Protein backbone atom coordinates (compact mmCIF):
# COMPACT_ATOMS: atom_id res chain seq x y z
CA UNK A 1 0.00 0.00 0.00
CA UNK A 2 2.84 2.38 0.83
CA UNK A 3 4.43 1.66 -2.54
CA UNK A 4 1.17 2.47 -4.33
CA UNK A 5 0.81 5.75 -2.41
CA UNK A 6 4.40 6.66 -3.17
CA UNK A 7 3.95 5.97 -6.87
CA UNK A 8 0.74 7.99 -6.98
CA UNK A 9 2.42 10.92 -5.20
CA UNK A 10 5.35 10.80 -7.59
CA UNK A 11 3.04 10.88 -10.62
CA UNK A 12 1.11 13.86 -9.24
CA UNK A 13 4.32 15.82 -8.62
CA UNK A 14 5.52 15.11 -12.17
CA UNK A 15 2.20 16.22 -13.62
CA UNK A 16 2.49 19.54 -11.78
CA UNK A 17 6.15 20.19 -12.52
CA UNK A 18 6.62 18.95 -16.09
CA UNK A 19 4.40 21.56 -17.83
CA UNK A 20 6.39 24.43 -16.36
CA UNK A 21 9.63 22.77 -17.46
CA UNK A 22 8.38 22.07 -20.97
CA UNK A 23 6.77 25.50 -21.45
CA UNK A 24 9.58 27.47 -19.83
CA UNK A 25 12.11 29.53 -21.81
CA UNK A 26 15.66 28.33 -22.21
CA UNK A 27 17.01 31.87 -21.89
CA UNK A 28 16.84 34.20 -18.92
CA UNK A 29 14.59 37.20 -18.50
CA UNK A 30 15.51 40.68 -17.36
CA UNK A 31 14.17 42.61 -14.37
CA UNK A 32 10.96 43.38 -16.27
CA UNK A 33 10.28 39.71 -17.13
CA UNK A 34 11.37 40.25 -20.75
CA UNK A 35 13.75 38.39 -23.03
CA UNK A 36 14.80 38.48 -26.68
CA UNK A 37 13.05 35.85 -28.77
CA UNK A 38 15.18 34.41 -31.58
CA UNK A 39 16.76 37.14 -33.70
CA UNK A 40 14.04 39.68 -32.90
CA UNK A 41 15.21 43.13 -31.86
CA UNK A 42 12.11 43.59 -29.71
CA UNK A 43 11.90 42.10 -26.22
CA UNK A 44 9.16 39.57 -25.50
CA UNK A 45 7.57 40.44 -22.17
CA UNK A 46 5.52 38.24 -19.86
CA UNK A 47 4.03 40.87 -17.61
CA UNK A 48 4.22 44.56 -16.89
CA UNK A 49 6.64 45.51 -14.14
CA UNK A 50 4.95 46.18 -10.82
CA UNK A 51 7.27 49.06 -9.97
CA UNK A 52 5.25 52.24 -9.57
CA UNK A 53 6.28 54.99 -11.96
CA UNK A 54 7.82 58.02 -10.36
CA UNK A 55 7.91 61.51 -11.83
CA UNK A 56 9.72 64.70 -11.02
CA UNK A 57 6.45 66.56 -10.59
CA UNK A 58 2.87 65.91 -9.58
CA UNK A 59 1.76 69.22 -11.08
CA UNK A 60 -1.52 69.04 -12.97
CA UNK A 61 -1.25 68.26 -16.70
CA UNK A 62 -3.42 70.24 -19.07
CA UNK A 63 -3.21 69.49 -22.80
CA UNK A 64 -4.57 72.95 -23.56
CA UNK A 65 -1.53 74.52 -21.85
CA UNK A 66 0.65 73.15 -24.67
CA UNK A 67 -1.34 74.85 -27.47
CA UNK A 68 -0.88 72.04 -30.00
CA UNK A 69 -2.16 72.83 -33.49
CA UNK A 70 -3.04 69.63 -35.30
CA UNK A 71 -2.84 69.15 -39.06
CA UNK A 72 -3.68 66.54 -41.70
CA UNK A 73 -1.33 64.25 -43.59
CA UNK A 74 -1.64 63.78 -47.37
CA UNK A 75 -3.65 60.84 -48.69
CA UNK A 76 -1.82 57.47 -48.76
CA UNK A 77 0.56 58.51 -45.98
CA UNK A 78 1.94 55.40 -44.25
CA UNK A 79 1.47 54.86 -40.55
CA UNK A 80 4.89 55.25 -38.90
CA UNK A 81 4.35 52.32 -36.57
CA UNK A 82 2.71 49.61 -38.71
CA UNK A 83 3.08 50.82 -42.29
CA UNK A 84 -0.66 50.85 -43.06
CA UNK A 85 -2.16 53.34 -45.52
CA UNK A 86 -5.79 52.29 -45.03
CA UNK A 87 -6.45 53.56 -41.52
CA UNK A 88 -7.55 57.01 -40.36
CA UNK A 89 -4.29 58.92 -39.92
CA UNK A 90 -3.59 61.31 -37.05
CA UNK A 91 -0.60 63.24 -35.73
CA UNK A 92 1.04 61.33 -32.90
CA UNK A 93 3.53 62.84 -30.45
CA UNK A 94 6.35 60.29 -30.18
CA UNK A 95 6.97 61.61 -26.67
CA UNK A 96 3.42 62.18 -25.52
CA UNK A 97 2.53 65.63 -24.18
CA UNK A 98 1.72 64.17 -20.76
CA UNK A 99 5.11 62.41 -20.76
CA UNK A 100 6.79 65.70 -21.73
CA UNK A 101 5.00 67.48 -18.91
CA UNK A 102 5.83 64.91 -16.24
CA UNK A 103 9.47 64.56 -17.28
CA UNK A 104 10.27 68.28 -17.10
CA UNK A 105 7.85 70.22 -19.29
CA UNK A 106 5.89 71.42 -16.28
CA UNK A 107 8.76 73.87 -15.69
CA UNK A 108 8.43 75.47 -19.16
CA UNK A 109 6.66 78.76 -19.73
CA UNK A 110 3.67 79.07 -22.06
CA UNK A 111 5.78 79.89 -25.13
CA UNK A 112 8.18 76.99 -24.71
CA UNK A 113 5.29 74.58 -24.11
CA UNK A 114 3.77 75.67 -27.43
CA UNK A 115 7.14 75.30 -29.19
CA UNK A 116 7.77 71.79 -27.86
CA UNK A 117 4.27 70.51 -28.62
CA UNK A 118 4.39 71.79 -32.21
CA UNK A 119 7.96 70.65 -32.92
CA UNK A 120 7.48 68.29 -35.86
CA UNK A 121 10.57 66.28 -34.94
CA UNK A 122 8.27 64.74 -32.35
CA UNK A 123 5.40 64.09 -34.78
CA UNK A 124 4.70 60.92 -36.76
CA UNK A 125 1.64 59.80 -38.72
CA UNK A 126 -0.21 57.09 -36.82
CA UNK A 127 -3.47 55.20 -37.15
CA UNK A 128 -5.93 56.87 -34.80
CA UNK A 129 -6.66 53.54 -33.10
CA UNK A 130 -2.97 52.96 -32.35
CA UNK A 131 -2.49 56.59 -31.27
CA UNK A 132 -5.34 56.09 -28.80
CA UNK A 133 -3.91 52.78 -27.61
CA UNK A 134 -0.44 54.29 -27.10
CA UNK A 135 -1.76 57.23 -25.08
CA UNK A 136 0.97 58.66 -22.84
CA UNK A 137 2.93 55.38 -22.68
CA UNK A 138 6.68 55.12 -22.51
CA UNK A 139 8.35 52.87 -25.13
CA UNK A 140 8.20 49.86 -22.81
CA UNK A 141 4.53 50.45 -22.01
CA UNK A 142 3.68 51.02 -25.68
CA UNK A 143 5.29 47.73 -26.67
CA UNK A 144 3.39 45.86 -23.96
CA UNK A 145 0.09 47.34 -25.14
CA UNK A 146 0.77 46.09 -28.66
CA UNK A 147 0.63 42.45 -27.51
CA UNK A 148 -1.18 42.27 -24.16
CA UNK A 149 -4.38 40.72 -25.60
CA UNK A 150 -6.37 43.52 -23.96
CA UNK A 151 -8.19 45.66 -26.49
CA UNK A 152 -6.27 46.39 -29.69
CA UNK A 153 -3.17 44.33 -30.56
CA UNK A 154 -0.88 45.24 -33.46
CA UNK A 155 2.51 44.40 -34.93
CA UNK A 156 5.20 47.01 -35.54
CA UNK A 157 6.57 47.16 -39.08
CA UNK A 158 10.11 45.83 -39.54
CA UNK A 159 12.65 47.86 -37.51
CA UNK A 160 10.03 50.50 -36.66
CA UNK A 161 9.94 49.91 -32.93
CA UNK A 162 13.62 50.81 -32.56
CA UNK A 163 13.22 53.76 -34.93
CA UNK A 164 10.48 55.00 -32.63
CA UNK A 165 12.66 54.46 -29.54
CA UNK A 166 15.51 56.44 -31.14
CA UNK A 167 13.18 59.33 -32.02
CA UNK A 168 11.84 59.27 -28.47
CA UNK A 169 15.37 59.34 -27.07
CA UNK A 170 16.59 62.13 -29.38
CA UNK A 171 13.63 64.36 -28.56
CA UNK A 172 14.00 63.98 -24.82
CA UNK A 173 17.69 64.78 -25.09
CA UNK A 174 16.95 67.82 -27.26
CA UNK A 175 14.77 69.38 -24.56
CA UNK A 176 16.66 67.96 -21.55
CA UNK A 177 13.68 65.89 -20.42
CA UNK A 178 14.06 63.21 -17.79
CA UNK A 179 14.20 59.47 -18.44
CA UNK A 180 13.31 58.70 -14.81
CA UNK A 181 10.20 56.67 -15.68
CA UNK A 182 11.79 54.76 -18.56
CA UNK A 183 13.07 51.19 -18.73
CA UNK A 184 16.82 51.17 -19.57
CA UNK A 185 16.65 47.65 -21.05
CA UNK A 186 14.19 48.75 -23.76
CA UNK A 187 16.66 51.42 -24.91
CA UNK A 188 19.59 49.01 -24.67
CA UNK A 189 17.82 46.61 -27.05
CA UNK A 190 17.87 49.46 -29.59
CA UNK A 191 21.53 50.42 -29.07
CA UNK A 192 20.91 53.30 -26.66
CA UNK A 193 21.86 53.94 -23.07
CA UNK A 194 19.95 55.97 -20.52
CA UNK A 195 21.04 56.68 -16.97
CA UNK A 196 18.49 56.87 -14.20
CA UNK A 197 19.04 58.88 -11.01
CA UNK A 198 20.15 56.83 -8.03
CA UNK A 199 17.44 56.04 -5.51
Describe this structure in words.
With 199 residues, this protein is mainly alpha-helical. The protein has one domain (28-188). It has helices at residues 2-23, 97-102, 110-117, 128-134, 139-145, 160-174, 184-188, and strands at 34-36, 43-45, 89-93, 123-127. The strands form 2 sheets. Strands 1-2 form a two-stranded antiparallel ribbon. The protein has a two-stranded antiparallel ribbon with strand order 3-4. The protein is globular.
Quick structural overview:
This protein is mostly helical and 199 residues long. The chain is 35% helix and 8% strand. The strands form two sheets. It has a two-stranded antiparallel ribbon. A two-stranded antiparallel ribbon has the order 3-4.
Identify the notable features of this structure and list them briefly.
199 residues, mainly alpha, two-stranded antiparallel ribbon, 7 helices, 4 strands, globular
Strands ordered across the widest β-sheet? 1-2
DSSP strand tally: 4
Count of helices? 7
How would you sum up the global shape?
Answer: globular
Q: What is the count of distinct domains?
A: 1
Q: In sequence order, what are the helices and strands, one letter per element?
A: HEEEHHEHHHH
Mean pLDDT comes to 81
What gap, in angstroms, lies between the N and C termini?
Answer: 59 Å
Helix content: 25-40%
Q: How are the SSEs placed, and which strands pair?
A:
Layout lengths: L1 H22 L10 E3 L6 E3 L43 E5 L3 H6 L7 H8 L5 E5 H7 L4 H7 L14 H15 L9 H5 L11
Antiparallel strand pairs: 1-2, 3-4
Amino acid sequence: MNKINLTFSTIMILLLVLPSIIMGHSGGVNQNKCHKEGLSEIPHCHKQPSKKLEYYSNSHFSRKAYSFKTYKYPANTKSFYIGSVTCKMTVDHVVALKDIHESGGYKFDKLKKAIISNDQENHVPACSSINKSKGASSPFGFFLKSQDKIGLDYKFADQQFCKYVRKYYQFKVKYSLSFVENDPETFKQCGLKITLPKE
